[in-house]
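Dear colleagues,

As part of the handover before I leave the project, I'm documenting each prediction I ran so the next person doesn't have to rerun anything. This entry is a single chain, and its sequence is reproduced below.
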Amino acid sequence: MKKLYGLGTGPGDPELLTLKAVRIMKEAQVIFAPNNKGTNMALDTARDFIKEKKIVLIDFPMGRVTREDYIKAARIIEGEIPDLGNGVFLTIGDPMIYSTFIYIMDELKRDIIETEIVSGIPSFVASAGASKMPLTVKGDNFYLCDELDEEKIEVADSLAILKTFKNKEDLLDLLENKNFKYKYIRKVSLEEEAIFERREDILEDENYISLILARRNQEER
């Protein structure tokens, strides 16, 4: 049977790849990744370990991706992995957190291909370390999202909000009104990493690879 690994490359720094991830990439016959105009952050992270590997970039349409697109990707993967061989699908962060791989995995034919997950360090975990802002302490309700739900924030003590390049002013207004302190982390673990706490600096930055960590002020908990 063929085998496909969903492999998380972490937040971008190659030194944050796990030993298992490096070994699996070296043993694989083919590497898969989503095609992002010919580039891919996960591929860049893994580049030194896949130099001699066959790399297959899978196209996804801009905007809304449908189930048919994931089915097409699954058929490509099944066809490219040799019999009794191994393939690796690279994702930034972890394969089980907001990842394209989740949807592809559901469309793979289980009588043809086996799957295994190789976990990676998520960006919000790396950002907590870089900013020294704890994600959770005992008794906390932690809320991870890529679109903030105002009702859920009412019961949250700690937040990680991904993809914060849009509507930042409204987002910061909400956090401040709900008495959260926050930090904005850009491109954690990379050369362009920056951590901002001033509202003006956060609103000025427009990088896509960014997130916000927030904790409710102690007196409100």
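DSSP finds eight helices and ten strands in the chain. The first strand starts at residue 2 and ends at 8.

All the best with the project,
I.
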